[in-house]
Structure formats: C-alpha cells, structure tokens
Specification:
170 residues; alpha/beta; CBS-domain; four-stranded mixed sheet; three-stranded mixed sheet; 5 helices; 7 strands; 30% helix; elongated
C-alpha cells in the first residue's frame, strides 16, 4: 500500500507506514459491492438475534449433556465452571471425535473430559465478516457470543446462512 501522506510504498497488510508512521488501517477497508457484502462488513452479530446459549456445568455427565442437546435441539452447549465462566464447548463434533473413540463408559464421566476447552468467542458488536472468518479459520460450526464477558448466545453456520439467504431474497 502506498502511504497517502508520504507516498512511501509499504508492504501489504502493514498497519502503519514504516516511513512516516501514519496509521494505514483505515485506508485498507473493503468497499462492499452489494447488500450481502454490506451486511457482512457493517452489521453486528446482534442482527442475527443469537439463540440463547445452553449452559451446563463442567461436572455434568456426558449422558446428561447429550440428553440436553437432544431436548433443546442444539448442536453445541457451553460448559461453564463454578464462577459461571466459559470453560469449554461441547459439540456434535466432540461426540464424534472424542466420545465415540472412548470405550470406557463415557456416560457417567463429566462433559469436561470431552469438551473443547477455551473456545473462540465473539462479542455482540463484532461484525459478521469477523464471525465468518473465525468460523472458517477454525472450522467451527458454532461460536459462543459474549456480552460484557458473559455468554449470551450461540451463533451457528445455519444462522449465518439464513441471514445471507434472507438478503438474497430482497
């Protein structure tokens, strides 16, 4: 990128000019070409109206967690510790990759033994493009949504697709 202040040619992706130190981040903002791109770049996560997060304590058994997932019709649940902070996420993928490989009677073991610890999260004010980038980069189908550091919802790939398809119909 060429600095608009000093005309120094910088490497692509740098945040500031290496010659005059001008902040270049605001000059490298994508320009939306249609309403879908506009929504992805400008709309916050809150526009998706995330479904409330299903929370279970880390000591909940795998059998109980599976039953909650079935009863609530969700593909992932958030696992919280004693301080009600997110300790992990337990998803359908964890069932397929971790639980199914364990022949030791997982039913009565705590869900914390099989969860994905310290999951990636997004905030209600984050832009949709940021969420898609995180989901794609980590191969996540579900991502927790936080407000003031507390879990308030869960976004799924299906939520994102539903939003994008709604924009296509307009």
């Amino acid at each position: 990128m060429i600095c608009p202040h000093c005309n120094h040619e910088n490497y692509p992706g740098v945040d500031s000019c290496i010659w005059c130190l001008l902040d270049l981040s605001s000059f490298d903002v994508p320009i939306p070409q249609d309403r879908i791109e506009k929504s992805l770049v400008e709309d916050p996560v809150s526009i998706l109206k995330p479904s409330p997060a299903v929370l279970l304590h880390a000591s909940t058994t795998v059998a109980q967690a599976i039953q909650v997932m079935l009863d609530q019709n969700v593909g992932a649940i958030l696992v919280v510790n004693d301080a009600s902070e997110i300790a992990g996420i337990f998803s359908e993928r964890d069932l397929l990759t971790r639980v199914s490989d364990d022949p030791t009677g997982y039913h009565d073991r705590p869900v914390s033994d099989y969860m994905t610890a310290n999951p990636e999260t997004v905030k209600v004010g984050d832009k949709l493009a940021f969420v898609l980038h995180k989901m794609d980069g980590g191969s996540y189908r579900h991502i927790p949504v936080l407000k003031d550091g507390k879990p308030v919802g869960m976004i799924s790939v299906r939520d994102m697709l539903r939003h994008i398809l709604g924009l296509c119909r307009k």
